[in-house]
């Protein structure tokens, strides 16, 4: 990564046993600078997952950055699950990126992953 490169996330998990991370579900990445990275390794063991996300061609083909610390390729957890669009190119992603199976993605697709019952508003109820 060069100074000034655009990055969407920089998650700060320091050890893999920490129960932290980012999970983006049903999002869209569009209309920003070219060659944006989905994330960079700010700390040693970040965990970030994009699921069902539409990615325009602005996403860097490699997808993710180890933040010029190559040893972090062994400790990061970057995952993608059923993403689509010109910027979702698994064949061009860096080797340390996980293309998640259904079972691997499941924990990141539930509200409990982000303790959403504590801060997300419940869906509105529609009167009959």
TrEMBL record:
Residues 5-116 form the Pectinesterase catalytic domain. GO terms for biological process: cell wall modification; pectin catabolic process. Gene3D superfamilies: Single-stranded right-handed beta-helix, Pectin lyase-like. It is an enzyme of class 3 (hydrolase). The keyword Hydrolase applies. It holds the Pfam family Pectinesterase. Pathway: Glycan metabolism; pectin degradation; 2-dehydro-3-deoxy-D-gluconate from pectin: step 1/5. It comes from the Eukaryota. Transmembrane segments: none annotated. Its EC number is 3.1.1.11. GO terms for molecular function: pectinesterase activity. Keywords: Aspartyl esterase, Hydrolase. SUPFAM superfamilies: Pectin lyase-like. Belongs to the pectinesterase family. This is pectinesterase. It comes from Gossypium arboreum (Tree cotton).
